[in-house]
C-alpha cells in the first residue's frame, strides 16, 4: 500500500479497557513522541441505511457526524484486503440528515449506487468521547505521523438498546502502514490490547439486526496473472488472517460450532500457504509462523473435536435409540449419561479457546503477521535464485506447485484399497494441502474445470473426514475422564455402542470410498503443462 492519500483512511483499531487508558497515554511509545497537546471532543455520529440494509450488505458506510455547530457527511467504502485502508469522502451538510445531492466525487456516487435520500433511515448512533494526539515514529523521509485516538462511548439504537465501546484507534497521517503495527506492538507492552477488525458500523449493524454472530467461510481469493509471487504471498496470508478473525466473535460465544471450525480452517490454510511458499521465507520467520499456528490450532482443536463427537457421532445414535419406542431403555439412559459427560468436556474445551483468543500471545501473533506482511519481511534474506522469483509472475509457480501437491496426494493414496487407517489419514492431509493450493490459485485459471476438480476432490475428502472423526472419537472417549472425574456406570457401554455403530457404517461404505478415490485420480488437471507422469 502506498502512503496515505486524500480520500483514504488507513487505520488500526485496538480494543482496550477504559482503566488502561492512562497507562497507555503515559507509555513511552506515545509520551516520548507526541507533537502538540491532546485534544478531547465528543463525537455524535448517526449511521444511515435503507430498510433492507443495502449499504451494510456491501460494507459501505454512510454517516452524519455533529461537529460543534455543524454537520459532516461521510461515505466510506468496504475495507481493503489488508484490513487497514478504505475510501473516505466527506462534505458539510446543513443538518443531521444526509444529503446525497452534495456528494460530488464520482467514486463515492458509484459506491452508493441508485440510492435516494427518501430511502434512508437512521439505524444507530455512536456517541464517543475522543482524545487525540499525534505521534511521530522515525526520522527524516522515513518518518510516519500517526493520530492516536482514545475512544470511549457507546452505540445506541433508536429503541434504547446499546453496546459499549472502548478502543485505541491508530490512524496513519503520513508514512507507511507498517508504522501502525510498530506502534501497536509497542503499546501492547504497556497494557493488554486486542486487535479489533470490526468497524463501528459493523458493530452497530450487528446490534440493530439483533442476530447472533455468524460463522463465515473464506472469501474467494482473487489473483491475476500479473500478480507476483510476493504479491500472492501477501494476499493469501492476509486472506487467511481475515478469515480467522472474522470468526472470533462467534467462537467466543461458543454457541455455533461452525465458528471454531472456520477458525481452524483458516489456520490450516495459513499453515498450508506457509509450507507452499517455504522456499521464499527465511528459516527463522518460517519457524516462528509455524510455531504460533501450531499453538493456536492446538488450543482450538479439543473444542472442535468435542463438537464433532457430540453433533455428528453421538447425536444420531442417541436419536435412533430415543425413537425406538421404549426398546433399549437402559441403552438410552447410558447414552444420555455419555452425552452429559461429553458436553461437560466440550464446555471446558471452550474455556481453553476463550483463554487463547483473549491472550496477549494471540494479539502478538496477529500484529506480528500483519507487520511481517506490510514490511515484506521475507525480503530480509540474501539474494538467491529462489528469492529473485519473488518478483516474477505467480502463474508459472502456481502450475509447478499444483503439480507438486497433486503428485504427493497421488503417492499418498497409492494402493488405496489396502491402505491402513494411519496412511489414509496421511492421504487426507495431503488432499487438504492440495485443496488449499487449488483455492489459492483458482482465479488464475478457467473456473469451470477448477470447479469440477474441487467438487470431485471434496466428495472424497468428506468421506475420508468421516473415517478420521470415528478414529478421533475413540481417542476422545479414552480422554473423557482424564481430569479425574468419575464416569457413570453405563458410560463404557454407551461408548461401545457409538463406536460400533459408526464402525459398521464405515465398513458398509468402503466400496464407495474406493470408487471415489479412483474418480479423483481420473479427474483431468485444470492447470497448464502438467508434469509427465502426474
UniProtKB/TrEMBL annotation:
Pfam families from the UniProt entry: CHAD, CYTH
Coiled coil segments of this chain: none
GO MF annotation list: inorganic triphosphate phosphatase activity; metal ion binding
Entry-linked InterPro entries: CHAD_dom, CHAD_dom_sf, CYTH-like_dom_sf, CYTH_domain, YgiF
SUPFAM superfamilies: CYTH-like phosphatases
Source organism of the structure: Azospirillum palustre
Domain CHAD: 226-525
UniProt name for this protein: Inorganic triphosphatase
Domain of life according to the entry: Bacteria
Domain CYTH: 7-211
Amino acid at each position: 500500500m502506498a502512503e496515505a492519500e486524500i480520500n483514504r483512511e488507513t487505520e488500526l483499531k485496538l480494543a482496550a479497557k477504559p482503566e488502561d487508558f492512562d497507562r497507555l497515554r503515559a507509555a513511552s511509545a506515545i509520551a516520548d513522541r507526541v507533537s502538540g497537546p491532546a485534544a478531547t471532543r465528543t463525537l455524535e455520529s448517526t449511521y444511515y441505511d435503507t430498510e433492507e440494509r443495502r449499504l451494510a450488505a456491501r460494507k459501505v458506510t454512510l454517516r452524519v457526524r455533529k461537529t460543534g455547530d455543524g454537520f459532516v457527511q461521510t461515505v466510506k467504502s468496504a475495507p481493503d484486503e489488508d484490513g487497514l485502508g478504505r475510501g473516505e469522502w466527506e462534505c458539510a451538510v446543513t443538518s443531521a440528515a444526509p444529503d446525497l445531492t452534495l456528494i460530488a466525487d464520482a467514486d463515492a456516487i458509484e459506491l452508493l449506487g441508485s440510492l435516494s435520500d427518501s430511502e434512508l433511515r437512521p439505524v444507530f448512533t455512536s456517541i464517543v468521547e475522543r482524545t487525540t494526539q499525534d505521534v511521530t515514529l522515525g526520522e527524516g523521509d522515513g518518518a510516519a505521523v500517526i493520530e492516536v485516538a482514545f475512544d470511549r462511548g457507546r452505540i445506541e439504537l433508536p429503541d434504547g438498546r446499546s453496546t459499549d465501546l472502548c478502543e485505541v484507534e491508530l490512524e496513519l497521517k503520513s508514512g507507511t502502514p507498517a508504522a501502525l503495527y510498530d506502534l501497536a506492538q509497542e503499546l501492547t507492552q504497556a497494557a493488554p490490547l486486542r486487535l479489533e477488525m470490526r468497524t463501528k458500523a459493523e458493530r452497530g449493524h450487528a446490534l440493530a439486526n439483533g442476530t447472533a454472530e455468524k460463522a463465515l467461510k473464506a472469501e474467494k481469493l482473487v489473483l491475476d496473472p500479473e500478480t507476483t509471487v510476493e504479491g500472492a504471498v501477501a494476499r493469501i496470508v492476509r486472506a487467511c488472517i481475515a478469515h480467522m478473525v472474522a470468526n472470533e466473535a462467534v467462537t467466543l460465544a461458543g454457541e455455533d460450532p461452525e465458528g471454531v471450525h472456520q477458525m481452524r480452517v483458516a489456520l490450516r490454510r495459513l499453515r498450508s500457504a506457509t509450507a507452499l511458499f517455504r522456499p521464499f521465507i527465511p528459516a527463522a520467520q518460517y519457524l516462528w509462523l509455524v510455531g504460533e499456528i501450531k499453538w493456536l490450532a492446538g488450543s482450538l482443536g479439543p473444542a472442535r473435536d468435542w463438537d464433532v463427537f457430540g453433533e455428528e457421532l453421538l447425536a444420531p445414535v442417541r436419536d435412533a435409540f430415543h425413537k425406538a419406542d421404549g426398546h433399549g431403555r437402559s441403552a438410552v439412559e447410558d447414552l444420555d449419561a455419555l452425552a452429559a459427560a461429553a458436553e461437560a468436556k466440550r464446555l471446558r474445551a471452550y474455556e481453553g479457546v476463550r483463554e487463547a483468543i483473549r491472550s496477549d500471545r494471540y494479539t502478538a501473533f496477529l500484529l506480528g503477521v500483519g507487520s511481517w506482511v506490510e514490511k515484506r519481511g521475507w525480503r530480509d534474506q540474501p539474494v538467491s535464485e529462489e528469492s529473485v522469483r519473488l518478483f516474477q509472475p505467480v502463474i508459472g509457480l502456481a502450475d509447478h506447485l499444483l503439480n507438486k501437491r497433486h503428485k504427493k496426494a497421488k503417492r499418498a493414496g497409492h494402493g488405496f484399497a489396502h491402505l491402513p487407517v494411519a496412511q489414509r489419514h496421511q492421504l487426507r492431509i495431503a488432499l487438504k494441502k492440495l485443496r488449499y493450493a487449488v483455492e489459492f490459485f483458482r482465479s488464475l485459471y478457467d473456473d469451470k474445470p477448477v470447479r469440477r476438480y474441487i467438487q470431485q476432490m471434496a466428495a472424497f475428502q468428506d468421506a475420508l473426514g468421516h473415517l478420521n472423526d470415528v478414529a478421533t472419537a475413540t481417542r476422545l472417549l479414552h480422554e473423557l475422564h482424564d481430569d479425574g472425574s468419575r464416569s457413570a456406570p453405563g458410560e463404557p457401554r454407551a461408548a461401545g455402542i457409538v463406536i460400533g455403530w459408526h464402525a459398521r457404517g464405515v465398513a458398509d461404505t468402503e466400496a464407495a470410498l474406493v470408487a471415489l478415490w479412483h474418480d479423483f485420480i481420473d479427474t483431468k488437471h485444470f492447470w497448464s503443462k502438467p508434469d509427465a507422469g502426474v
